[in-house]
Model the fold of this input.
Amino acid sequence: MTRLTVNGCSVEVGCDPGTPLLDVLRGELGLVGTRFGCGVGLCGACFVLLDGRVTASCDTPLSAAEGRAVVTVEGLAPGDELHPVQRAILEEQAGQCGYCLSGMLISAAALLAAEPRPSEEAVVRALDGNLCRCGVQRRIVRAVLKAAE
Amino acid sequence: MSVTVGSDGLISVRAGKVELGQGVLTALAQIAADALGADLAQVRMLPARTGDGPDEGFTAGSMSIAHAGPALRADCARVREAFTVEAARRWGVPPDAVTVRRGVFGCGGLTATYGDLAEAVPLDREEPPPPGAFPHPPPPEPVVVGVSVPRLDLPDKVVGRPRFVHDLCLPGRLYGRVLRPPSPGARLVRLRPLEGVRVVRDGSFLGVLGETEPEADRALARLRKAAEWEERDTLPDERDLHAYLRTGPHETIAVLTTTDNPPAEPDTGGSPTTGEPPAGTVHTATYSRPFIAHASIAPSCAVARWNERDGTLEVWSHTQGVHPLRTALAQVLGHPADRIEVRHVEGAGCYGHNGADDVALDAALLARAAPGRPVQVRWSRQDELTWAPFGSAMSADVTAAVDATGMVCSWAYDVWSQGHVSRPGHRGFPGLLAGAHLEQPLTYPAAGEPSPASGGGMARNAVPIYDFPHLRITGHRLLETPIRTSALRSLGAFMNVFAIESFMDELALAADLDPLAYRLAHLSDERGREVLRRAADAAGWRGPGQGLGFARYKGNGAYCAAVAEVEAEHHVRVRHLTIAVDVGQVVNPDGVRNQIEGGATQAASWTLKERVRFDRRRITSGDWASYPILRFSEAPEVSVELVEHPGTPSVGAGEAAQGPVAAAIANAVAYALGVRVRDLPLTREAVLAAIERD
Done:
């Protein structure tokens, strides 16, 4: 059994320790907000926070999360509340297909936790590991800056 | 009937068009709400499925608002009228004395809601009343059409609620993976037996099933090792796409001829000409674009379940057309179409004919081996980038004769390309990928072309909008192709507008005229002139590093002018795109802006970076390192000017910006560096090669 904390709850998982964390979150824990995009950590769709650091869950084994705290998009804000970036994305309508949003929210939340008033350059840098194909990058940047206000 | 009203007042609209990430269901909900005189909050858009709702073919070609909008408006207006008549009957007043606003019917002091009247108006039990069956009460004033209402789907997506087909969790779900051949010409010659792996094989189609996703992935890895393929070199030389595209056999497509004496005869192709060559100076240039991938962030995914009890097949898919997919599945599987139900579930952001339909067949083939259990199949990133159909490479010659003042007297355009459509059902073929790998393989013809009435494929926007006195436009469709192509956002328009608008700048430069003034001098279309001026004014034309591109999509759709501002030093960087667009009556202004911004950003990515790579055997651009797309640090700021024409028919916005943006960037680079890059993408290497050439 592997013990870890997911969105503030302590969980025990019986999967093989080599199982990708993404599959554990989606398949075992039913947290489907974290998305599969490429499987090798190059697109950011599967980003989660691992002890506060942005981490690609698709190529991180469960064993690497043992005893650590994982936060997914579902855990960015308590209960029905919205994280300021979630709110700002809705205000800016910064989405099209929405598949990449979860990973971007993770990157943005990590940035704002470390740097509550980031410059535009810092926002762009923080999101550069997240790919978006629909082309909402500039709306996302606006939303993150708005969330920081 | 696609509209039902519940006694709780909720009005459900079963759409024929599907949500592809473009926000169409929000826009259609706005149209429905206004036609019903209802509150937007009481309208529920239900996803398309084959069992009921209208068959509106594919959600494609920027036609959803133009086609489905009026049909939905008419349906909803009839519902409103039926409810109006019922309210009038109850109150003993003439129907035209009844008004409706925000879902409440009223007359004098009497009121009734949709919910109050629902039981007395049996919409779901009979065909809708024919148009004109009722006295026509005046339509309510528009309330939400023309307003930037927020997207209906985004609240779920920002909190990670299950929304995509990838998230669909049905009881007893199995996971399937498909092992694609390593190359387009490969054939399975041997499969070593595998213990403890549920393999599904039909000819060269190979898949595995697992109880969990990791189990399916492990099984796939073992299957990969156990399969032996025979491969052949079938692919063309990636470094010489011009030669590949121009070596036949071709089908010649006479797009438009207004003259017997075009300016000059291109090297190959084209019809013989008669008459005297025109007077004037002849200019000519050759342009190209490479093969381009859809490259959605979400891999294609589908769920299928065979029900032994009643012999039905259920499929959940992010297809662009539930009805055409059902027909294609029936063809490949030899199963009656009326025993197949296809339901739309959201998936990848969709920019044309991607792998959505193919993976639905994969899921159906794997699910056949596990009756009664839903099987979810998700493609790998590599499958996505190497097996989904590509947008075709294209090569074009433009030739113009100009008079002493530089004005165009005649114009010839020849474009060589693979076909731009191989969707399910095109020319009667199912077109689904795995069908070609089965023990009894289906053979599909090379991709064809959409009809001219649908805007054509390689010929899309091949006819310039300008007032040229003599024109000859010819397409040459390659008939034998080892590379699978189909519709990619804007089809041939991206390349044709890039070529036409680049050449317009080259002609303007030769005549020593400003590119904007040069275009206006050739353009009598008033809406076009307005859009050009608005883009130029908003951008502060002509600042340093600026370039212009302009077109009217399909010749009858949205007008779009783009001004790009680039920095070109070590590599090309697009700083800003200023885009003016006229889509007729705007249903959702922010929705239009979002589509234009996104389309422009994607077009910048195609223009600057993208090229499907291959050697003579395999497609080699199978990951994000070998097929890079625009990143946050490279995404230009996009400003959108909506040129509003209320009262004119609404046309789509999703494909308006592609061509103008490509041309604007190329023209900006030419202005900034003084060199012309005519072969996309505009990479650093391409710019350096052009500098060396000049």
